[in-house]
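Final report, Chapter 2: Outcomes

The project's central promise was a pipeline that accepts a single protein chain and returns its three-dimensional structure in a standardized token representation, suitable for archiving and comparison. That pipeline is now operational. To close this chapter, we reproduce one record exactly as it appears in the project archive, with the input sequence first and the structure output second.
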Amino acid sequence: MADETNRPEGSDRSLPARRDADAGVPARSADRFTAPRQTRAVGGLTSERAAKIVRQSGDARWVAFLGLVIVALFVIVYYFYELGVPIINTTPRMQAEADLQQVTSVERGYNLFEANCAKCHGANGEGGVGPVLNDQNKLFSHLTEGYIRNVLEVGGRYVCGNPKSVMPVWSNTNGGPLNYVQIEDLIAFIRADSTKEYVKRSATLNEPIIGPDGKVETFKGWRDLTFKPDPSASPVPDCWSGNPGGTPAPEATLPPGTEATKLVAQGFAFDLKEITVAADKPFAIELENQDSPGTPHNVEIRKTDGTSIDNPKPIDGGTTTTYVYEALPAGTYTFICQVHPIPAMTGTLTVK
């Protein structure tokens, strides 16, 4: 009793309640704080299995780490694949695709130009009925993408304010035959890089054209990207204002003893279907264009395989000129109007 009197007041509240074993209350072991024995027996969590679980957990972490490394490397490689490697100056994928599309556009534009524009502007843009297009001064500051697009969409009359302009409308938005993709292809061809070589392709099959020598035929662009005009040079006017027939071909000097064969073009037809000249001697054809002004004609000589021997400038209706040709070996050739390559303006040239 003395001990109980010396105990601090309220201290028995902090002590656990006493249980008398004889009171019939069973004592609890430490196992009550763990899983039941049945669970441990079924799970079989032995020391060996616990160690295996730890090892498997470590392997999973390594797999996750390796996966993360692979993803990181893929992102880095793909980044440089898209944008290029600065050190070795590789071409970015998007730029390579854009260059490829540009080449395709130029090649399509070549066929469009040959079919629709060459008869007035020349097969190589050298001019004829229409103005010269392959002039570097024009391509530098005058024949810009915007200007060419404007001319093709609304025609020469609206661009230049000239009611006598013979440049028609080409865009189908204003009644022309070409859609917007074809307009862009024409622009790409006219402004193509002169240092690059492009493949001539069939307009129907889009397959490369094989020449007589068995090689793929190619062409180059007109624009020199390094060209800079002389500071003192006069700027190219916004509108070309030559006569509607273009610059006529200069009168050629006939070699001694050579007589020119007269050929008349009228109603989109030649009056002769056959011409005979001497072999291995220069010869001449005097062309009289009796069609109305604004209707150009010329006389082109072609081999049997269709390749052209020359590229004479067309003359306007109502004018006359003489074309002089180099000596040809004996054989059969074709004379044809390059501007209007129709049967009525096609004949046979016999050289013997």
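Archive annotation: Helices lie at 2-6, 37-43, 47-83, 93-116, 118-121, 136-142, 145-160, 180-190.
This record, like all others produced under the grant, will remain available to the consortium after the project formally closes.
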